[in-house]
Specification:
Elements: H1 6-22, E1 27-29, E2 32-34, H2 38-51, E3 55-59, H3 65-76, E4 83-88, E5 101-105, H4 111-121, E6 126-130, H5 136-146, E7 155-158, H6 170-180, E8 184-186, E9 202-205
Parallel strand pairs: 3-4, 3-6, 4-5, 6-7
Antiparallel strand pairs: 1-2, 7-9, 8-9
Length: 206
């Protein structure tokens, strides 16, 4: 039996997305909202357990729920020395800042922000989550500027690649990146739970 394609999963994805996100039934972690589908959170947990990153760099903090989720999942898997860096152009974190999460306020395209991420990743197994500005040009810059911090065997996750964004969104930037940069594999990890905002975005560094 073949896995369904991204296109064939959209009829399943759309009503769930409308119910969860558009109707403000978003997932949360410790009462902090996370603008992801529950299937994404389970998949992130699976991957973190499998790859055991020492640093997760997240572009797009929003309310801070996903950064907190990542940190706690690292803790639960016996990785208390692992850290999270989360980047956003503005400070919208709810319920205060947490230890072992580095909150960077600034545009992910700024040289000093890029330098902070690269310094934090030195010598560490690093995973990257791109979930900031979803315009294809901005995502291209994030892919170009940050892909080098990801270590072999770790994932770079480009969120919101689902096909209805077409040539204007992250999916177009993902395809542009894969055509020009060697050593990356677009994986089928997102198919395990069929739907989620990480559909089509799990790139493995070989």
């Amino acid at each position: 039996m073949e896995y369904p394609t991204e296109e064939s999963r959209l009829p399943i994805f759309a009503p769930l997305y409308q119910h969860i996100h558009r109707r403000k039934n978003d997932a949360s972690w410790k009462n902090v909202p996370i603008l992801k589908m529950p299937t994404d959170l389970i998949l992130y947990s699976d991957i973190i357990y499998e790859t055991k990153p020492e640093l997760i760099v997240e572009i797009g903090t929003k309310f801070g729920g996903s950064a907190l989720f990542f940190r706690d999942i690292l803790d639960s898997f016996g990785l208390p020395d692992s850290q999270v860096m989360t980047i956003d152009i503005k400070d919208g974190v709810l319920q205060g800042k947490r230890d072992r999460i580095q909150y960077v306020i600034g545009n992910s395209k700024d040289a000093d922000v890029i330098a902070q991420a690269k310094k934090a990743a030195e010598g560490k197994k690093t995973m990257l989550v791109i979930d900031g500005n979803h315009d294809r040009k901005h995502v291209k810059w994030d892919l170009h500027n940050y892909h080098s911090i990801v270590t072999p065997g770790q994932y770079m996750v480009v969120e919101d690649c689902y096909i209805d964004r077409g040539m204007y969104g992250p999916g177009f930037a993902r395809d542009w990146f894969l055509e020009r940069y060697n050593g990356w594999e677009k994986t089928d990890r997102c198919k395990k739970y069929l739907v989620g905002v990480t559909m089509g975005g799990w790139l493995l560094k070989k």
